[in-house]
């Protein structure tokens, strides 16, 4: 089923992918602003998928209710212009899962076009849910940038906070306690084939 859907994606349009789209707010906002692009949102949670499906009716959007690890290999290499991953599950960002991270993000790198971008917005928390110290934050920034650069990505931008146009309901919730939940924004680019 998903292979059929992927085969129907218009190849003449800029392709934007949202991994784990949640309620679809980002997909909806971007698809309204970028009418010439084709937007795909992937969400494994059926309730969130239904919520997104009921609110997004744009013709330049396709939503998939499945595991993005299963869907991503179906895309052709060098076919995706931009990928968003907002507040990833810890298994997709935690350094304790490095071998799995390498496999997944290398695959993602191959699917992104030359000069395509990968936007990652993630949270840094303390295990005891205490305020996150600057040293801990800076160590995480270094680890994340070094990890992605080791796979071939080039860091374009990295800072605390996130652009307002990328707001999601989960980001709004997580942004309520800026001392204990510190939000980091990364923009990476693929500069070679």
Topology of this protein?
Elements: H1 2-7, E1 14-19, H2 25-33, E2 37-42, H3 46-55, E3 61-64, H4 68-71, E4 80-86, H5 98-111, E5 112-125, H6 134-150, E6 153-160, H7 169-174, E7 181-190
Parallel strand pairs: 1-2, 1-4, 2-3, 4-5
Antiparallel strand pairs: 5-7, 6-7
Summarize the structure.
With 193 residues, this protein is α/β, with parallel strands linked by helices.
Notes on the structure:
The protein is built from seven helices and seven strands, in the order αβαβαβαβαβαβαβ. The chain has 193 residues and is an alpha/beta fold. Strand 1, helix 2 and strand 2 form a beta-alpha-beta unit. The chain has a seven-stranded mixed sheet, sandwiched between helices. The two termini are 29 Å apart. The protein folds into two domains: 75 residues, Rossmann fold, CATH 3.40.50; 107 residues.
The largest sheet, given as strand count, sense and whether it forms a barrel, is: 7 strands, mixed
Q: Which regions contain 5 or more consecutive residues with pLDDT less than 50?
A: none
User: Oligomer, anyone?
Assistant: single chain
Kindly report the average pLDDT value. 92
Question: Which descriptors apply to this entry?
Answer:
193 residues; Rossmann fold; alpha/beta; seven-stranded mixed β-sheet; 2 domains
